Amino acid sequence: MDGQVIQRLRKENPFMPLQDIIHEILLQEIVTFQLLPGSKITQSHVAKTLGVSRSPVNAALQRLAKNQYVEKSGAYRVASFSEKECKDMMELAVQLEAYAAGRAVMIMTDKQLDELYELAYLLQKKGWENTKRRNICYCSETIELERQFHRKIICLADHPLLLAIYDQIKYRLFRYRSYLMYNPPKGYYSIVSKDHLIICDVLKLRNKVMAEAVVQRHVSFAENFLKDIMDKRLYMGNEE
Hints:
There is one protein chain. By secondary structure, the chain is mainly alpha-helical. The chain folds into 2 domains: 3-78, Arc Repressor Mutant, subunit A; 83-236, Four Helix Bundle (Hemerythrin (Met), subunit A) (Up-down Bundle), CATH 1.20.120.530. It is built from 10 helices and 3 strands. A 3-stranded antiparallel β-sheet has the order 1-3-2. α7 (136-156) runs antiparallel to α8 (160-182). The protein is globular and about 55 Å long. Residues 235-240 have low confidence and may be disordered.
């Protein structure tokens, strides 16, 4: 993290607000373990390092806190990282999202399915951009689109209690998923960029069993890749 990084990102993303660029820089530092869980983040240090004022740094940290990447107890610190919580979150996501997909195919309208397709096409586009350009701002946009896509499936189930449960965990869930998106194995984005469209195609068939199966496969696919990343990180930590 230095002033050259922010200048490069401002050049690549000329219309992006400064606080958003700072957010992306800090987010990447967190999910690639450059800033370790529990590390203190001071506004003055970040501002001095990046050559910016403290105001956009504060806005970026507030956004990170809202999404539970950092915690504030006096000072800002990188949120704790728990492999068990990660595993529990992914297992719960498989159950909730598969169940939601099974309900959704029985009651969703064609218009609602079209809206899901729109998100899938955007994810496909961002997936290819991530593969070609490796711009960290594109990674963040992909995370947000992923969050919208998966929450849309939950909403299509028309189950208020299910939605309330999902909204309780969504930020922590996607915090762990973002570790995968910033540290993808080879070929990950080329596969995932197509996978959301496959989900839509299967939901279009309006078959409950097939809908549950395709969403379960999709979420489990990410879970397995994420587990590999966690195992490698644990191994590296032991080596150190």
